[in-house]
Specification:
By secondary structure, this protein is of the alpha+beta class. The protein has one domain. Helices cover 31% and strands 38% of the residues. It has one helix at 10-63, and strands at 65-71, 75-83, 89-99, 102-107, 110-116, 120-126, 135-136, 139-141, 148-154, 164-170. The strands form two sheets. A six-stranded antiparallel sheet has the order 5-4-3-2-1-8, with helices on one face. A hairpin with a 2-residue loop joins strand 3 and strand 4. The mean pLDDT is 88.
Length: 175
């Protein structure tokens, strides 16, 4: 009778190495997917934070608006109260317009990126409150501002060119 060897055969060792390699590759793919998912979530959160901050800035800017007001279809300029680097509010010239693929706000020497992936921006101005009121495409006045501003953004930062976002902002009491 032949006595069995105490070691492993070459085939057994190769099978074990192959199984270990499959386990390592699978674990690597799982961990890579988890890391990519976490990175995507962090990027989406930054985008949402930027969008919420932009809308908060726009709301505060319109609520602190001061004439003169020059509102065109593609650009708005007025004066508003903005937080200065020293921590207090200062009146500064403010301009909102499309700048390439972005909606930007310029105020106090700063350019604020309000929306990315923009293919078009249109501003409209509310004359009076009520059911039969009309929106106009221009409002130019040295002494007053419209009741509200409607901002229509085409593109929305997505691949879908048909995507559009409409924002409404109340303006502080007119002078």
């Amino acid at each position: 009778m032949k006595q069995a060897g105490a070691g492993f055969t070459l085939i057994e060792v190769m099978v074990a190495i192959t199984i270990a390699a499959v386990v390592v590759v699978t674990a690597h793919k799982v961990f890579t997917s988890v890391a990519d998912g976490a990175k995507a979530v962090a990027t989406a959160r930054q985008d949402l934070d930027r969008s919420a901050n932009a809308r908060r800035w726009l709301k505060a800017t319109f609520l602190s608006l001061e004439p003169p007001f020059e509102g065109r279809r593609d650009r708005i300029s007025f004066s508003s109260w903005q937080l200065s680097p020293g921590g207090w509010l200062e009146q500064s010239a403010t301009i909102l317009q499309q700048d390439g693929p972005r909606l930007t706000g310029k105020s106090g020497g700063q350019t604020i990126r309000l929306a990315d992936g923009v293919s078009g921006v249109t501003f409209d101005y509310l004359l009076e409150p009520g059911a039969d009121t009309k929106w106009v495409s221009e409002w130019i006045s040295p002494v007053s501002a419209p009741l509200a501003v409607r901002v229509r953004i085409a593109g929305c930062g997505k691949q879908d060119a048909a995507c559009a976002d409409t924002l409404f902002f109340l303006v502080k009491e007119r002078g």
